[in-house]
Amino acid sequence: MSTERIVSAAAVDPDEDRRNVALRPETMDRYIGQRALVEKLRVALRAAADRGEAMDHLLLHGPPGLGKTTLAHLVAAELDANLVVTSGPALTKPAELAGLLTKLRERDVLFVDEIHRMPVALEEYLYSAMEDFRIDVRVDSGMHARTVTLRLHPFTLVGATTRAGLLSGPMRSRFGLQGHLEFYPPEELLLILRYSAFRLGLRGASDSGSKASGELDGALLRLAERSRGTPRIANRLLRRLRDFAQVRHAGVVSAQACDDALALEGVDALGLDSLDRRYLKCLAEVYRGGPAGLEAIAASIAEDAGTLEQAVEPYLLQAGLLARTRRGRQLTKRAADHLGVDVDPPGGEDGDASADALFEG
Ligand code: ADP
User: Fold this and answer.
1) Contact, 1 vs 308, CB < 8 A?
2) Which of 106, 110, 309, 349 is the most exposed place for a label (fewest CB within 10 A)?
3) How far is the CA of 128 from the centre of ligand 1 (A)?
4) What is the pTM of this model?
């Protein structure tokens, strides 16, 4: 379900990220936002370069679509090293991992996406690889079983995860550098969109990063505000807008074209789609604003609770439209205003302190 949504933060199909390669910043200077993390990386890269060593292993965590893979590419580019890309679920056997690790050259970067989904049995192989740059592989079995130690070139592992909590303690502690990626404010998404508009050759776009023509810039700002803090969504909406403007607005990308294109996609002024609105409306109308349990809401709108928790709630929480209290999910005043509904204010018999705080804030 979530994979079909235009506002899904994960890639909607395997080709999407391939098409996005052209939009990816090529240097650290072009990477927008995440300033504290980028600064930390600059120091680590500089220190590694000065010592002529591989950079510390790096764990990046945060919601999908915020630029973890992009950062891994940039780290490798700054190190002037190769990047080898794999993912937790793709690694199933020790031999596959050993194959990847032994092919790495000095100071190369191994990027493991969704590292929390790597089989536990492989973790201990990775530990010795990360700590001592060696890997002990068992060969043969039974009486002839023996362990062969393979020496590796010093390398940097960059692990990415959307679920840092699912990573084992020992695994996490082996990353010398860790960084959390935050949602982007609209001003930063606007900068990303200006760059993308330029790369996609939109009429009115000027060279990367600088302001586009008034008409285009108005449209880009509107997109930025509806992209749920996520560059991947911003770039996807921009492509849809480009198509729409070409077919319906004679190629002119204006605020009006943007509104029309998003209306057609069912995306509203806050970047919510019909599933988000169904969730909020259910909470408002069926549960009078809550608190209500996730399972109850899921049953009322005939959706899977896991999908709602992973693909719907994070943005609603982030946007201050939903509060999670001890007693369940609670609609906020902002959400009630957005839906144009009146709900019982929490804090009476049904409310609790944390919901009150959110309502007043
Ligand atoms: P993740 O690995 O966190 O899911 P990606 O690195 O694949 O996210 O980023 C998704 C898309 O968003 C990429 O195509 C990239 O071009 C764009 N993007 C992400 N972060 C930035 C950024 N800080 N500046 C410019 N573009 C970005």
Assistant:
1) no
2) 349
3) 31
4) 0.89
